Amino acid sequence: MSKIVAIPIPGGNKTVPVNTGLFINNEFVPSVDGQENITVVNPATEEILCEVSGASAKDIDIAVAAARKAFNTTWGKNVTGFERSKLLNKLADLMERDQQELAELESLDNGKPVRIARDFDIGDTIQCLRYYAGWADKIVGQTIEVDNKTKLAFTRHDPIGVCGQIIPWNYPIGMWGWKVGPALATGCTIVMKPSELTPLTALKLSELVKEAGFPPGVLNTVPSLGGVGGAALAAHPGVDKVAFTGSTITGRKIMEAAAKSNLKKVSLELGGKSPHIVFESADLEQAANWAALGILYNTGQDCTAGSRLFVQDSIYDKFMALLIEKTNQLTISHGFDENAQGGPVVSKTQYDRVWSFIESGKAEGAKVAVGGEKRTTKGFWVDPTIFVDVKPTMKIVREEIFGPVLSVAKFSTEEEAIEWANDTSYGLGAGLHSNDANQCMRVSSALEAGTVWINQYNLLNNNVPFGGKKQSGIGRELGSYALEEYTSVKAVHWNFGEKLSWPF
């Protein structure tokens, strides 16, 4: 049996029990070959929360076998869409029941405020599961006319099979829901690898999967180092599809491993260096609010973070005064502070990475308008930092930072703004602010990104597809488009009247 640990919740005598084993076949078990445990750290205090079992390649084999057995016997094509829908709705109900407890674990594990984890991340994930529960009995194909007198054809959208799902640490519950929802709705089974930095809520959600009544093996959770568990899933011949959210570098490795193994289907949601444009006709007060949200939400740890801001020169000074005022109003504190709007970055590695970019910006001649100074207290704190007077060649402008660091540049014309916005190898998100409807249509069409926001930023909807272009990935999550990532189309040709002459 694996070990259960009680995680203390700050501010009282409450603890949350977490099973620290691997979740395979609806049971928590230790690693079969004693893989080294994963240490989980509170990024706000640098204190160790607990240790959880780390999955080895052999553990991945066992989890994949469990998922395959479930797919062939108790899930897959063996249950109705109605039954899948019922179980997904039950899982959403249990998440709603435990919303506060899940948020507390998420905050301790990831650093984000409890309030934001509870009301936004988890609240949205509950809706995501219910959205896909609604799709579960509506996976339909087509009837195609061939010859009405002798033949017809029809298509079936079959579940693709066993899915390896590799999720990041910036939205541990949100990314879990984005991948679990469509996979289970279509009848796939899952081997889920949460980030080694934030495994606690995935383990807690596994308890709810069992309580909801999903058959053993339908969803298996295997915390592991990326180079071990993630690599094993990407290369595994028993995995039919891999879904990954994370860095472009790792995405390349996964795609290569998938191609070299069994040519499994791959969907990748990767990095971004998203442009955010403010035109002179915009509502500047609102544009400043959205620009601040675009880079500071989740402490900038967001693939779509609007990290390159372009402001038209005619309104630059007025807008920057507003933006700096908004930025200074933000409260960055520990997750159990009800006033907190952001927390620490997730780890020492990420802290060092973000600060290396800040120092690089200073060294290359960019001017710090806000922030740029380290705190002396414990915790992986990075306060909001805004650079102005940036040049297109600077490292802070070219590379994804994944922290609350913004680069701001002026532009004169619409054409110049579009050219600068598209001058990136990424293409995940983009935003623009303008009260000129024709300009909104022109610019949104010209921007090379999978998602474009007009007069808002960083808000997503469960029924609207999300994904990238260029080096920001392939495939789509959310909306009905995500169902296509977990199904394969089978064409059935039915001859009921034609007689074949032989020899022909």
Which key terms come to mind for this protein?
single chain; Aldehyde Dehydrogenase, Chain A, domain 1; Aldehyde Dehydrogenase, Chain A, domain 2; 21% strand; 504 residues; Ald_DH_CS_CYS; Ald_DH_C; Ald_DH_CS_GLU; 15 helices; 6-stranded mixed β-sheet; 7-stranded mixed β-sheet; 2 domains; alpha/beta
Textual characterization of the structure:
The chain has 504 residues and is an alpha/beta fold. The protein folds into two domains: 62-270 and 468-489, Aldehyde Dehydrogenase, Chain A, domain 1; 275-454, Aldehyde Dehydrogenase, Chain A, domain 2 (3-Layer(aba) Sandwich), CATH 3.40.309.10. Helix content is 37%, strand content 21%. The chain is built from 15 helices and 22 strands. It has helices at 57-73, 81-97, 99-110, 114-135, 172-186, 200-212, 226-235, 248-260, 284-296, 316-328, 348-363, 395-398, 414-421, 437-446, 481-484, and strands at residues 4-8, 15-19, 22-24, 27-29, 38-41, 48-52, 143-147, 151-159, 162-166, 189-193, 219-221, 241-245, 265-269, 275-278, 308-312, 367-370, 385-388, 405-411, 429-433, 451-454, 473-474, 487-495. The protein has a seven-stranded mixed beta sheet with strand order 16-17-18-15-14-19-20, sandwiched between helices. A six-stranded mixed beta sheet has the order 11-10-9-12-13-21, sandwiched between helices. The longest helix is centred in the first third of the chain and has 22 residues, at 114-135. The mean pLDDT is 97.
